[in-house]
Amino acid sequence: MTPDELSGALSAALAAAVADGTLALPADAIPASVHVERPRQREHGDWATNIALQLAKKAGVAPRTLAEDLAKRLVVTPGVKAVDVAGPGFLNITLDAAAAGSLARTIVEAGAAYGRNDSEAGLKINLEFVSANPTGPIHIGGVRWAAVGDSLARILTASGAEVAREYYFNDHGTQIDRFARSLLAAAKGRPAPEDGYGGAYIAEIAEAVIADALADGDADPRDLPDAEAQETFRARGVTRMFAEIKQSLHDFGVDFDVYFHEDSLHESGAVEHAVARLQAGGHMFEKDGALWLRTTDFGDDKDRVVVKSDGDAAYIAGDIAYYLDKRERGFDDVIIMLGADHHGYVGRMMAVCAAFGDTPGKNLQILIGQMVNLVKEGQPVRMSKRAGTVLTIDDLVGAVGVDAARYSLARYSADSNIDLDLDLLASAKNENPVFYVQYAHSRTVQVAAKAAERGVRREDGFDPALLDQESEAVLLGRLTEFPRIVAQAAELREPHRVARYLEALAGDFHSWYNQNLRVAPYPDEEVTDQHRTRLWLNDAVRTVLVNGLGLLGVSAPERM
RNA sequence: GCGCCCGUAGCUCAGUGGAUAGAGCGUCUGCCUCCGGAGCAGAAGGUCGUAGGUUCGAGUCCUAUCGGGCGCACCA
User: Fold this and answer.
1) Three-class SS string for A97-132?
2) Nucleotide closest to A503 measured between CA and C1'
3) What is the C-alpha separation between A46 and A39, in angstroms, rounded?
């Protein structure tokens, strides 16, 4: 019996109570689906609902009285073993072992589909994340969004959405000029420019650019006049950096559907197109020789310059055009993940969204994630791209591997700052909970292998009523929750919920395993339905662990 | 000054109004002749920053306040 079926039974009980006059409520006061949840306390049964507490006041009856009535109606439902009224008016529901245990087979038969849901069904979602400037390797902050964003894309897809992963490649402005001047300076052995970048990677990129140029039969850029040389370093340096970033992300298990170049917006006329639309809407005005967007009409705290008085497009012009471009490509929801250092954009971009006649918070959703701090021996370590003291995506993967890196970045709420301890990274990687979850998975594989060796075959029998141990009820309850967890992670855009769920599931599984309830019989024992049914349960756990780890982009090894 | 995020066990963090607030790490005590001990069982450890408020019920919602992080450009 699934929570949805239980919820349906509760709705029916309510409807019946209204029909025979026991419950004096208008039909529209009855919720379409009654919320049931897993109680924290095992003594409170398999499922609990507070529906009587919610409706009692409206109906003018005591909560416990209503609860007693509902309990009587519900307890006759097939699969329901007991319904108790507790506390101020909770309904605590206990299922038959058979009704609960049947889930094991359902999950195994659903396989990869178990956990999929329709909470985002039919939506075309554009998810933009990372979008780090091509002026250096991706550092730890960007890696966090790579892990979280890619996982979110997987979760949204599992929830029925059509998702495009997109990377906005910022190759237009003065940051790129600085980058080019820095490369030139490094190539010529001159000190880094005042406002430039000084990391060791700059010298490496400069060398690579020179090698690329020579390989193409071009002149050594060091022999060119500065202006020409700088252009060579800009063009080749950006291309080079772009390729490196793409490769690093690929090695991290993250591949984008679209790498969108800011330059293309300016070259294609997309910026003019977007500005023209805003002008037509009456949202633009001229002042001090510049062209402004009146974002204050839509809640921003000040108006924004779109075209500067020198005729150049301001940065926001690209963002405006980019947003419109995404919408015109047919995306319903445009989601952008940004670090907390960019949260100043939210107000103006929401205003832009509204100026186009869209709905902020729906057509445009901006997710702000907090920063990652590096800590060494308890002291914060400042990371600076210009000083070259950065922890890059490749450093992180090299130190702990893709699985541990992705998992440990995705298991935290994006709202919380992460303190990453460099010593811990290097020394104690076994502390990562990812191994706890992966170990549970490999255990299910080994258990199944041993069972097969002893002649236990799922198709020879399944009797869910035999899953009557307490640890089995706990495990089944946990397995039931998975689709809801995925749906919730999708709706709230919070992938960490999947990770936390998997840790709990792994814990329940390890605990069950240690009861020594035997999936594989001892060598001198007969194979019974007990073994076969437990194998179904074991394999159901494996299915959910595989599906869940997959949503995080983490592997599920068969042995460790 | 204004805005956003955070404050929960010694540490790192879960907990989108429910019952006795959880996990990992660390500390202490037990558990390997049989499906892998990267595991399990148990103990210790909390005025959920503080003060008010809403509610049958608040870690969760509201207000104020303290502490920390990050922002408030004709930069990108």
Assistant:
1) HHHHHHHHHHHHHHHHHECECCCCCCCEEEEECCCC
2) B23
3) 7
* Direct distance between the N- and C-terminal alpha carbons of chain A, in angstroms, rounded to an integer: 35
The closest alpha carbon to A142, from A392, A433, A335, belongs to A392
**Strand B bases, protein C-beta under 7 A:** 2-7, 12-16, 18-26, 34-41, 56-57, 68-76
SS3 content of chain A, % helix, strand, coil (to 5): 55, 15, 30
Phi, psi (degrees; rounded to nearest 5) at A310: -85, 5
Characterize A11-34 residue by residue with b for buried, 16 or more Cβ atoms within 10 angstroms of its Cβ, and e for exposed. Answer: bebbeebbeeebbebeeeebeeeb
CA distance A2 to A408: 32
Alpha-carbon distances, residue A218 vs A17, A70, A314, A529 (angstroms): 85, 83, 34, 75
Across A154-182, b (16+ Cβ under 10 Å) vs e yields: bbbbbbbbbbbbbbbbbbbbeebebbbbb
Which token pair is A525?
């024992």
Q: Which nucleotide is at minimal CA–C1' distance from A289? A: B74
**Å separating the CA of residue A393 from the C1' of nucleotide B14:** 26
Domains delineated in chain A: 3-95 (3.30.1360.70), 432-552 (1.10.730.10)
Instruction: Tell me which residues of chain A have a pLDDT lower than 70.
Output: 27-28, 377-379, 383-389, 424-430
The protein residue nearest B13 (Cα–C1') is: A412
Euclidean distance between CA atoms A340 and A342, whole angstroms: 5
**Nearest nucleotide by C1' position to the A421 CA atom:** B12
Whether A413 contacts A534, CB under 8 Å: no
What pLDDT, on the 0 to 100 scale, is given for residue A426?
A: 64
Residues 6+ apart with CB under 8 A from A171: A134, A238, A242, A261, A262, A263
Q: What's the confidence (pLDDT) of residue A272?
A: 95
The whole-number pLDDT of residue A78 equals: 93
Residue A384 has a pLDDT of: 62
pLDDT score of A354: 96
Q: Measured in angstroms, what separates residue A34's CA from nucleotide B17's C1'? A: 16
Q: How far apart are CA A271 and CA A368, in angstroms?
A: 25
Go through A240-253 and write b for each residue having 16 or more CB atoms within 10 A of its CB, e for each that does not. Answer: bbbebbbebbeebb
